[in-house]
């Protein structure tokens, strides 16, 4: 049974992330401000994480230097405040399904920045290098298809009024294209954030302290952004509706539980194992969009999503092939140091 726990945890992670895309889209469709949503989400996450972190990591918190605190604050502005706000706008302008599809870009963008920081290498004349480069090219092609081609539209199987929207679910061509590129920008920001986060973890900071510090920092930053954009007190009211459900879900299940499970899976089975389950997020979101949001799917979205999944597996196959060759070389030549792990947090 213990051997099956990582598989179950990985599936639960993707279900949680699919729920995030669906509930976020439902909240935005009800008229909720994206910036206010992010502040409430991060505030709820902080309320849950802060007491736990203080209880278990009190000594580590007290020993944090000013430099490390500053790095955590700046990383929060990149990976949380900027990326999540942009991602929220992207989902608002497109669909929950497209938001889930964008997650398949993360290993590709992370690899790209790892390459820039010389944490990763590409042997272009080998199959592994060709697969990595091909993955990046296919990823770009997938984004282009999502943005510029819609094609025939498949209507949802069920019609209901579970979530009443204040705005139309059908985006105009301009907002759709803008939303696609906002989602791409969010994935680029996360890719850089993953690489920088891996660097700061090597200094000795624990994942719990880092996550809590970034969540707290992002809550403060998001409040400044939200209050600057929206000062109408009516817009800040939640009420007993989908807005409150979305905030509580994302603040607890996603920030606290899903992120913890994701870290646990990576520790047990490695980052590649966690990454290959990413397409499950798209499948669960697609089903949920049909059943809950009355969202249909265009042919362009389906083709673009498949290209993103293909790019994901192309990069991961190249990485796996490269690691396999590196292990063989290490066995044959013990004096050659093994290749260091590159993307610790895909």
Structure description:
It comes from Cucurbita argyrosperma subsp. sororia. It is found in: Membrane. The chain crosses the membrane at residues 36-56, 68-90, 96-117, 129-149, 176-196, 208-228, 240-261, 273-293, 299-317. Keywords: Membrane, Transmembrane, Transmembrane helix. By secondary structure, the protein is an all-alpha fold. The protein has one domain (13-332). It has helices spanning 5-29, 34-56, 58-62, 66-93, 96-102, 106-116, 127-148, 173-201, 207-229, 242-269, 271-276, 278-293, 299-332, and strands at residues 153-154, 297-298. The protein has a two-stranded antiparallel ribbon. Helix 1 packs across helix 12, helix 4 (66-93) crosses helix 9 and helix 6 (106-116) packs across helix 8 (173-201). 45% of the residues are buried.
Structure in a nutshell:
By secondary structure, the protein is mainly α. It is built from 13 helices and two strands, in the order H-H-H-H-H-H-H-E-H-H-H-H-H-E-H. The protein has one domain.
Q: Main traits of this protein?
A:
346 residues, mainly alpha, two-stranded antiparallel sheet, 2 strands, globular, WAT1-related protein, EamA_dom, transmembrane, transmembrane helix, transmembrane transporter activity
